[in-house]
Hints:
The chain is 0% helix and 65% strand. The chain is built from no helices and 9 strands.
Amino acid sequence: MDKFAVIRIGGKQYRVSEGEEILVDKLTDLKTLPEVLLIADGEKVEIGKPVLTKSKVTLKVVTEVEKGEKIDIFKYKAKSRERRHVGFRPKYTRLLVQKISN
């Protein structure tokens, strides 16, 4: 079993392991460290209450702004000939997990 961690960035939680790239919502402040909630290394599991203060996950920014898939939103009201179409592409930041340390 590999070593992995659960971190919180921007209000969302991600399960990460070393050498893995993750897509998170676009980060405005790239210097903030993620909160480490859990670290598992084989049979040894450390759970924070609510965070692990001594543990650290080192991240590197691969791409600062990356566009996601287009999301289409259709609004329709029956019998009133009202239709509306809105679309957008969310912006993400791609991060590389370099090191997980206890």
